[in-house]
Fold:
Amino acid sequence: MIRLKRIDTPLGRMRVGATNKGICLFDFQYRRSIEGIMDRIEKLLDDKFQDGESEFFPVLEQQVAEYFAGTRKEFDVPLHLVGSDFQKSVWKALLDIPYGETRSYKQQSLVLGNEKAIRAVAGANGDNGIAIIVPCHRIIGEDGSLTGYGGGLQRKKWLLDHESRNSGKAVQGQLF
Structure:
């Protein structure tokens, strides 16, 4: 069974899901594609989301509170990445982008060893169902512009500004 609950954050209500391996979902309640992401997780795990508690929820809630307070820069709550091998490789590469820094889709494609995979990388970023912790918000356009974010560009801007303030690093690029 995949446990599911909702929590409130400074950026709005989020859905949280966990298996016995770790957090498999942490995404904005009203994101347009959240139902599709949840359907993908259910299909790949051959299981269903059901409201309930998980041993991972209190850890996640504590770490998310610390992140929003500006005292946590890295998460260590166990994750259960659920997707294709390619998607998981993209999400794992996102985990290597340091707090307060950004990378372009092209740079991310190069990290993954295929410069021509920019669109596929962007698609996998969009399919990420573990917002903030798997920091797809740190991916920007090659010209430094904010581009695509499932949670909305205002939230992306807020997250990048928050990390910039708390890291002492200026975020590269245009934030609008």
About this structure: The CA atoms of residues 19 and 174 lie 38 Å apart. Helices lie at 34-45, 56-69, 85-94, 105-111, 118-126, 153-167. The chain has two domains: 2-69, 85-167.
